[in-house]
Amino acid sequence: MTLPSAVASLVFVRDSDETNAVLFADQTGLPADALDALRAVVPLAAQSLGFTKEVCVKAISLPPRVAGPNGPQIASIFGLGNRESSVFSEYNRMLGRLPKQVVPIADDGLGNLFVVSKQNGQVYFWDHECPDEEASEAAFTLIASSADDFLSRFVPAPSINSEELKRGVRSVRLDFLN
């Protein structure tokens, strides 16, 4: 599996360290097919992967609190070693907050995570500010049927036309005294 070509050119490796290229992600219970999909795009020595421009995930289901038709943004794909921002470190950091049957593999940069189910290999978006509690079923939205499917759903975020922004709200008046 590779990333879609429109997104592959936007990827950069965060802090690569060949001396620390040891696989730890397999110690989280991450399903083998999900691990294989990540290994195909994330160098083992990488702390994580980032993007030079905004990238979204065209989700199977749009999470309730995500605006826009392109789905949630993705800020980084976690590395496979045991360093900061790795699958292993994020899994351990989130123990007690996330159900044990999911493994974090990426984030949106706002505290929300993309997680893989250990039971069925499906990828979910986890909303850490879900009104029904962060560990509730409502906090999880199905994004992709597998890690391969997840990676294939990456699309560059549409650019914002500044002319459209100029036609928006011209002024706002806040009146707190009435």
TrEMBL record:
The lineage of its organism: Bacteria, Pseudomonadati, Pseudomonadota, Alphaproteobacteria, Rhodobacterales. This is SMI1/KNR4 family protein. Pfam families: SMI1_KNR4. Residues 91-153 form the Knr4/Smi1-like domain. InterPro entries: Knr4/Smi1-like_dom, Knr4/Smi1-like_sf.
